[in-house]
Amino acid sequence: LVGSEMCIRDKNDTISKIKNPFYKRLLESIFNDEDLKKRYIESPGAVSKHHAYKYGNLEHTIGMIKLAETMEDYYGKDTGLDMDLVYTGILIHDIGKILEYALVNGLPVMNPRYSMLNHHILGDEIIREKIKQIEGFPKDLENKLRCWIDPLGRGYTFLPKPITLWRRVPSRKG
107 has which bridge partners? Predict the structure, then answer.
């Protein structure tokens, strides 16, 4: 386990470097909500596979951020990608796990309250509700972010359909 305090610091550092005002407001809305923030930080990443322990989802997310930072460093910060979208997408991609999983006596279990749903559907609901609270949030930015909730395009009909990586992570110009 990577120290949860270090992961929290890395999460906060990532949010602080987001320049897009809509992405930043969305992330601030999520992490200023004490209940969501606590659940996000403590949530396991799974019940039996990767990161199946308290803070596991946060550790998984920070691992992905570190990969994106490595890519940026390799390309000298000139990836040609919208890195605000990349970092925001990474931070929200598994947010639905805060509802899908629970800890019982320190062990991850499926939350029976949400047993008929999965983290993609739950995450999309959380993000849509938060976006509704942000006046003037552009629909195109919302659709780009919602693709990160179901990055493999598994066919949830209400989610935007990612077709290729370039479509999910457009250049800074597009």
Answer: 104
Q: How far apart are CA 151 and CA 129, in angstroms?
A: 20
The string of pLDDT tens digits covering residues 65-85 is 999 999 888 887 777 788 999
47, 110 Cβ separation under 8 angstroms: yes
pLDDT digits (tens, 9 = 90+) for 32-45: 999 999 998 999 98
CA distance 167 to 118: 24
Predicted local confidence at residue 30, as pLDDT? 94
**What contacts 45, CB < 8 A, 6 or more positions away?**
51, 52, 53, 56, 57, 59, 60, 94, 97
> What is the average pLDDT score of the chain?
82
Of 142, 140, 147, 145, the closest CA to residue 161 belongs to 147
The structure tokens listed for 122 are 């739950």
Residue identified by tokens 């550790």 is 59
Please report the pLDDT score of residue 152 as a whole number. Answer: 55
> Between the CA atoms of 53, 128, 19 and 45, what dihedral angle is there, to the nearest 10 degrees?
10
Phi, psi at 101, each rounded to 5°: -115, 155
